[in-house]
């Protein structure tokens, strides 16, 4: 099944500048130590590790006008946008090794521009415990890792919403959020106002993960570029403790595997974020190894040959 996938470029982005806990900056090395490159190569995927991007240090300052570290967040995202766009234009699949989830602004801005250039439709699957639809006016913390979906939909500072020149980068109907179980009080109002397509854990419990994924992938076809933004806190913290914002009650191992396998079955994944892995909070890289296991399933690993 690996023949469905283009060559992959791993792009490390070692920063926790958008997060509320330190440690996600170590995520890229934890994923490498867990063997992400070797695991994909073993599936027949052509893997190029581009190393880590460089950017400003985390100043660890309080919010200014509702944003923490906005200048540094912009700089990291611009570097990632440019690096991702280079790999896409070279016919490769960028796989971002984060880092915190604010970095999805840069990666998805690059993918959206590439889709405009190539005439592809863009669908984003946002696998996360959180909706990440805060703004500076409603955020409890000012941490920009809680704002990337809002920024991509045009709500936020120009430096981020117009990172690639055009805003909004996404329309809400292009995004499907899966596994959500933590939405801030005022964020709930924004989510409803903008009609975000959210499959929260209650809905998953009611209809099952297979039905959720069938709905989330409806309309994905040969003209679709599928971007997967995988926040490791999507998974239940009982099996994935190495994240900064644990929320109990997430998908279990088999549910998470089914998500990845059904995405792989489409053959349409063209880019991937892996974010919020925090090895400081992990147990012997348990969460890093689980993330790599799930990514293998995104690239076609399955129990039986199903073609």
TrEMBL record:
<protein>
    <recommendedName>
        <fullName>Arginase</fullName>
        <ecNumber>3.5.3.1</ecNumber>
    </recommendedName>
</protein>
<feature type="binding site">
    <location>
        <position position="132"/>
    </location>
    <ligand>
        <name>Mn(2+)</name>
    </ligand>
</feature>
<keyword id="KW-0378">Hydrolase</keyword>
<dbReference type="InterPro" id="IPR014033">
    <property type="entry name" value="Arginase"/>
</dbReference>
<keyword id="KW-0464">Manganese</keyword>
<feature type="binding site">
    <location>
        <position position="128"/>
    </location>
    <ligand>
        <name>Mn(2+)</name>
    </ligand>
</feature>
<dbReference type="GO" id="GO:0004053">
    <property type="term" value="F:arginase activity"/>
</dbReference>
<comment type="similarity">
    <text>Belongs to the arginase family.</text>
</comment>
<feature type="binding site">
    <location>
        <position position="233"/>
    </location>
    <ligand>
        <name>Mn(2+)</name>
    </ligand>
</feature>
<feature type="binding site">
    <location>
        <position position="231"/>
    </location>
    <ligand>
        <name>Mn(2+)</name>
    </ligand>
</feature>
<keyword id="KW-0056">Arginine metabolism</keyword>
<feature type="binding site">
    <location>
        <position position="130"/>
    </location>
    <ligand>
        <name>Mn(2+)</name>
    </ligand>
</feature>
<dbReference type="InterPro" id="IPR006035">
    <property type="entry name" value="Ureohydrolase"/>
</dbReference>
<dbReference type="GO" id="GO:0005737">
    <property type="term" value="C:cytoplasm"/>
</dbReference>
<comment type="pathway">
    <text>Nitrogen metabolism; urea cycle; L-ornithine and urea from L-arginine: step 1/1.</text>
</comment>
<dbReference type="GO" id="GO:0006525">
    <property type="term" value="P:arginine metabolic process"/>
</dbReference>
<dbReference type="InterPro" id="IPR023696">
    <property type="entry name" value="Ureohydrolase_dom_sf"/>
</dbReference>
<feature type="binding site">
    <location>
        <position position="101"/>
    </location>
    <ligand>
        <name>Mn(2+)</name>
    </ligand>
</feature>
<dbReference type="Pfam" id="PF00491">
    <property type="entry name" value="Arginase"/>
</dbReference>
<dbReference type="GO" id="GO:0030145">
    <property type="term" value="F:manganese ion binding"/>
</dbReference>
<dbReference type="InterPro" id="IPR020855">
    <property type="entry name" value="Ureohydrolase_Mn_BS"/>
</dbReference>
<keyword id="KW-0479">Metal-binding</keyword>
């Amino acid at each position: 099944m690996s023949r469905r996938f283009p060559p992959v470029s791993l792009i490390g982005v070692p920063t926790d500048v958008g997060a509320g806990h330190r440690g996600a900056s170590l995520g890229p090395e934890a994923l490498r130590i867990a063997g992400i490159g070797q695991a994909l190569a073993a599936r027949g995927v052509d893997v190029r590790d581009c190393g880590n991007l460089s950017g400003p240090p985390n100043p660890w300052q309080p919010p200014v006008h509702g944003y923490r570290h906005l200048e540094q967040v912009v700089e990291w995202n611009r570097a990632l946008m440019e690096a991702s766009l280079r790999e896409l234009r070279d016919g490769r699949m960028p796989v971002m090794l984060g880092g915190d989830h604010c970095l999805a602004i840069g990666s998805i801005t690059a993918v959206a521009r590439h889709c405009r250039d190539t005439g592809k439709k863009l669908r984003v699957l946002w696998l996360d415990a959180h909706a990440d639809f805060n703004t500076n006016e409603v955020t409890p913390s000012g941490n920009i890792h809680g704002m990337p979906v809002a920024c991509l939909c045009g709500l936020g500072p120009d430096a981020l919403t117009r990172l690639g020149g055009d805003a909004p980068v996404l329309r809400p109907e292009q995004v499907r959020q899966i596994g959500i179980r933590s939405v801030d009080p005022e964020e709930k109002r924004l989510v409803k106002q903008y009609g975000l397509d959210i499959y929260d854990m209650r809905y998953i419990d009611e209809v099952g993960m297979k039905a959720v994924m069938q709905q989330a992938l409806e309309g994905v076809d040969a003209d679709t570029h599928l971007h997967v933004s995988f926040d490791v806190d999507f998974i239940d913290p009982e099996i994935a403790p190495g994240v900064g914002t644990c929320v109990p009650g997430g998908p279990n191992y088999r549910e998470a595997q089914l998500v990845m396998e059904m995405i792989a079955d489409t053959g349409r994944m063209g880019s991937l974020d892996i974010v919020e892995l925090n090895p400081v909070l992990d147990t012997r890289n348990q969460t890093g190894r689980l993330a790599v296991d799930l990514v293998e399933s995104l690239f076609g690993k399955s129990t039986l040959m199903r073609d």
